[in-house]
Amino acid sequence: MKIFSGVVGHSLSPHAREFCDFVDYRIAGKNPISSTLIYSTANYGNLTVPPNNYPEDTGAAFVRNVDCWAYDVMDQLTAISVYDGYSVPSSRNKNRMTLITPRHVLAAKHTVGPAGVGPLSALSGAYYPNRPKGWVDMNNNIHSAMPLYWIDLARFRAYPAEASGDACILVLDRDIPSDVSNMSILPYNFPSLITPRDVTRGIPIFKTGQMDELAVMSLLYYGYLFPGVITIPSELPTPFISIPDISFTIPIETIRKQFYTSVLNGDSSCPLMVGYKNNVSFLTTFSSAASGPAYYLAEDTINDAIVALDSLAGYNTGYKVKVSEY
Predict the structure, then answer these.
(1) Chain-centre distance of CA 188, in angstroms?
(2) pLDDT digits (tens, 9 = 90+) for 245-254
(3) What is the mean pLDDT of the chain?
């Protein structure tokens, strides 16, 4: 019998065991404080610089933490933006965005704007979605772009009817170079890979936050997650009213709990991810401290939204979101 970090290996389904091993083998023997930091140095630059300057023009500088528990897959985490371009101290690191193509990002809709579709130039607010964003490659170079338009994914096919959901996609004014990764989303059949029993024993996921940490959380039994418990439709209806939420919580396993950090006001849009073998997949963003949209149910909608965003911005990128293969 394999027992690791308090998890009984043979009691889990094969995919669940891989999800657990991805985290457990990497955090084993690591310092829960120093190894959760993504950067050993993080300088966010001169906060008095006018708002539309790009991060590299503000004196921003980052050095990746070689002691991070996930450093061996850190190249995949370069897809997560690190900088607002301009903000105020109370919201300095907020509103991260995750690259899914060289020019398109996912974010929590409530951090971007009202429901619907529109240009970010018309928006303002605590999260500054219409400011330049920066991505740091593995050589610690900053690559920046300006978000131009957003589409509320829940309303994209239901608009103008009332809709709920907190999933959003945006288009940038330029491609981010290939030195920065694009994160894949989970496949539509993700719920079939794990069981309610797996979740009660603890499926670790991990998240970033405004303190530049990579912290461990736990997936919860909830909503549309498990076929046979709550039925998943063969495909989302068109138009659909909302993208169902999944939920997550503090890890139940003792060692994983040491690598948990609290979800703070302002962590919205920070991604939560799942690891499988040596691959990192985008799971969701924070709608609240304990829930977020099930993006894996929206592959077709995301791709249709990419085409619509390109049209708004006068592009024809031909990009599509990547889907992880398990």
Answers:
(1) 17
(2) 788 889 988 9
(3) 80
Cα 140 to Cα 39: distance, rounded to the nearest angstrom: 10
Task: Write out the residue limits of the CATH 2.40.10.10 domain(s) in the chain.
Answer: 42-183+300-313
Say how far apart CA 259 and CA 51 lie, in whole Å.
Answer: 35
CB of 253 closer than 8 Å to CB of 199: no
Hunting for tokens 């950067």 — which residue is that?
39
Cβ contact 140:55 at 8 Å:
no
pTM given for the model: 0.86
- What tokens appear for 230 in the block? 């709550």
Residue 217's nearest CA partner among 197, 203, 200, 201 is: 203
Q: What is the DSSP string of 187-229?
A: PTTGGGGS-HHHHHH--EEEEE-TT-BEEEEEE---GGGSTTT
Which residue's entry shows tokens 């993080």?
42
**pLDDT per position as a tens digit, 55-94:** 777 778 899 999 999 999 999 999 999 865 444 444 444 5
Domain 42-183+300-313 is found in CATH 3.40.50.740: no
Q: What are the pLDDT digits (tens) for 249-271?
A: 899 889 999 999 999 877 888 99
